[in-house]
Design brief:
about 30% helix, nine-stranded antiparallel sheet, Dna Ligase, domain 1, ATP-binding (chains A, B), ATP-grasp_carboxylate-amine (chains A, B), 5-(carboxyamino)imidazole ribonucleotide synthase activity (chains A, B), 3 domains, Rossmann fold, D-amino Acid Aminotransferase, Chain A, domain 1, homodimer
């Protein structure tokens, strides 16, 4: 049975961003070919796949064209027409994670309900179909409002400390949850195979930007006790098992002041908190995801070196053809690995790349990452 | 000065094989775009570059088209029309390593003469423009005949123990050198920047296939004394410096029975003995090569984990669309990283991929690599 005429598989990827780009590279390494579906011609993933269908993630015809031309389809985003995917899955198309799981997770309210139903610790919440000052007040401040759909990279999430923050609220169907004063935000990448085999990566710490709720710096491994690390892995694994997920999932966790762990969010895909695995771990998250969705054995998740990762964001006030400043200076620092995503245009806070720093000492890696952040700047040409 | 409008550089790569394929991936990670020149449409490198010029390495017009459309041109093979490259370099095109260095190295006789002139230890040799039984006998057996041009992967090299081996000789302009009874064959990857900065990777041991003179298994690091490792690095670095090389060079060495080191061959390009650096070292050889030829700072060469590498060769008697057997079984072994090159057709002994095994213990990695070699087989469909 273990016989694969080349290509090992034709893989469809919905979404042509950086996650898809890194997934395509892993796919080709494994002897697969790829087709990417993305509305932007020459998307980051399309540049390496060699084949892109230009189309929207909500276009049933394009989704069908992709799934019907591939052996297995997966995705690097969540904002997809999951009804069409469910229909294609019913017709026998292989789509992982399953469109059912995607549908549950892409709506943050049903995601929370699923976690609660499975007995997974998570912040107390209520649905809020129509946000009003009275409804927020009735739930009580401080709170976190989350839009049911379409949020990512901090978009769709608002922390409201008191009624004075009401003007920042999102006027869309939402849930509100209790604000958790976390001492750390952690993340665990979990890979789960089609056969149910599960592998967790060592828990990492996500330091968030105070403004914007975006990942600022990732420390791998997290500086937590062994007990906490094991508990985080266990909770993350139970989360993915309860959802019957197949593929790599990013599980974001709060470590509370009382030492408890709670699941904050679930991403049914490879995750920003796992970029360091390309250099630092035995099997990177992208290959691991592909192994899972292809029904191949999962790889070892051992970490070979401490690592710190920062995102390279577009500078404020700049749009257009990217200009990378400080690349040479950053590369002069030992252990600095730069990843540029090949996006045709920069925009403020847009993820244009990332840097992973390897160092035997995590504190030293962190110090180097801080230097890199001060050195590299991604702006745009004045006349794009 | 450290400002790069995207793309950081347009890189031309002459040769679209596996080395070019891995180089393209590194190039895109660094924010570069690539054009590949290769006669086979959809070459391994062309599949990831997104842009390939289909043409021969000896076609002056195609070489010119490539170099004129790129900021920097490099190569993953040696059998190129170096006269045209020299002409392009004189016109100001940036080509690294320099066509002059390529010309010296691609002719094994001038390569040997250059090494000898620089005082680099190497096996005694004489030119042999027209091989005859008398000429071989006059030099004395055992000897090694090397064709001046066109050899690679053991082709163009014949070991002749005695006059009885004469029928195996190559009827082409050659050199003959003294057969060196080596206890180990070693290799050192050396990166040298445009500014002369040099970085050596830890010395590795190449175990060769008895038949065919091809690399059978690579052990990284080599099991040699610290003194020998340092001497190997020093000799390799002096070799590249003496040639004024820019880029990554693979320096193959003999460790003799008396503990001496001699340079066997020089490859002016990334090398089969450095594939493990993708997973095992801080900076992989492909990114390192690009840093060198682009004038960027060289990266750290530290090895993070012991590693063993084997090539995946086409099985004897099989030609046509590749069929990969045992992929899943091999991936089930922890630390096994499989690289498939995407070649459209398998052929006997053709390099179809490689496997790097990471393990904390080199002996265990080696044992796993032997298991993988017994498990994975690349054949071809009966009806291609």
């Amino acid at each position: 049975m273990d016989v694969f005429p080349y290509p090992v598989a034709r893989i469809g990827i919905i979404g042509g961003g950086q996650l898809g780009r890194m997934m395509v590279k892993a796919a080709k390494r494994l002897g697969c070919t790829c087709v990417v579906l993305d509305p932007t011609p020459g998307s980051p993933a399309g540049q390496v796949s060699g084949h892109q269908i230009v189309g929207d993630y909500h276009d049933p015809a394009k989704l069908r064209e992709l799934c019907e031309s591939c052996d297995v389809t997966t995705f690097d985003i969540e904002d997809i027409d999951s009804d069409t995917l469910e229909e294609l899955a019913r017709e026998g198309r292989r789509i992982y994670p399953s469109p059912r799981v995607l549908a549950v997770i892409q709506d943050k309210l049903t995601q929370k309900q699923a976690l609660t139903d499975a007995g997974i610790a998570t912040a107390p919440f209520i649905p809020m179909p129509e946000p009003t000052p009275e409804a927020f007040a009735a739930f009580g401040y401080p709170l976190v409002q989350k839009a049911r759909r379409g949020g990512y990279d901090g978009r769709g999430v608002v922390v409201m400390r008191s009624a004075a923050d009401y003007p920042q609220h999102l006027p869309v169907p939402s849930l509100v949850e209790r604000f958790i004063p976390a001492t750390k935000e952690l993340a665990v990448l979990v890979a789960r195979g089609r056969d149910g085999d599960c592998r967790c990566y060592p828990v990492v710490e996500m330091q968030m930007r105070p403004a914007g709720n975006m990942l600022d710096m990732l420390l791998a491994p997290a500086e937590v006790s062994r007990v906490t690390a094991a508990a985080a892995a266990s909770l993350a694994q139970r989360t993915v098992e309860s959802l019957d997920g197949v593929g790599v999932f990013g599980i974001e966790l709060f470590l509370t002041e009382t030492g408890d762990l709670m699941v904050n969010e679930v991403a049914p895909r490879t995750h920003n908190s796992g970029h360091h695995t390309i250099e630092a771990n035995m099997t990177d998250q992208f290959e691991q995801h592909l192994r899972a969705v292809l029904g191949l054995p999962l790889g070892a998740t051992d970490q070979l070196s401490p690592a710190v990762m920062i995102n390279l964001l577009g500078a404020p006030g700049h749009r257009g053809r990217p200009v990378i400043k400080g690349l040479a200076a950053a590369l002069a620092i030992p252990g600095v690995c730069v990843h540029i995503y090949g996006k045709a245009a920069a925009a403020p806070l847009r993820k244009m790349g990332h840097v992973t720093v390897l160092d035997r000492d995590l504190a030293s890696a962190r110090h180097k990452a801080e230097r890199v952040r001060a050195i590299i700047e991604i702006t745009a040409e004045d006349h794009p």
